[in-house]
Design a protein that fits this description.
By secondary structure, the protein is α+β, with helices and mostly antiparallel strands. It has one domain (5-93): Alpha-Beta Plaits (2-Layer Sandwich). Helices cover 34% and strands 38% of the residues. The protein has a 4-stranded antiparallel sheet. A hairpin with a 2-residue loop joins strand 2 and strand 3 (49-63).
């Protein structure tokens, strides 16, 4: 496969925000797909103390070529000061699915 594929993770304060931003990123072809996992509990350091929050996790599938556009748009739309945006290279998967991701995240 010619395109390097990525799985990008980001958390949001609620499902409505995740859905709105996820839809926009897919519509703008920054990602082929956005899977919304509505309930995760996050425990983290913020401003010198441990915090916890219920959040919504979104898994975006995209190409390395589209990552910069995804990150830029996600940062602009995201309500957090420092949003979680983590990209992991997809090493293996069903070839037909990976081809679909590549075809639906065109530059």
């Amino acid at each position: 496969m010619a395109d390097e594929l990525l799985l990008v993770l980001s958390t949001f304060p609620d499902v409505a925000t995740a859905r709105r931003i996820g839809r926009q990123l897919v519509e703008e072809k920054c990602a082929a797909c956005a899977n919304i996992l509505p309930q995760v509990e996050s425990i983290y350091w913020w401003e010198q103390k441990v915090e916890s929050a219920n959040e919504t996790l979104v898994l975006f599938k995209t190409t390395a070529d589209r990552y910069e556009a995804l990150q830029t748009t996600l940062r602009q739309l995201h309500p957090y000061d420092v949003p979680e945006i983590i990209a992991v290279r997809i090493e293996q998967g069903l070839p037909e699915y990976l081809r679909w991701v590549s075809e639906n995240s065109p530059e």
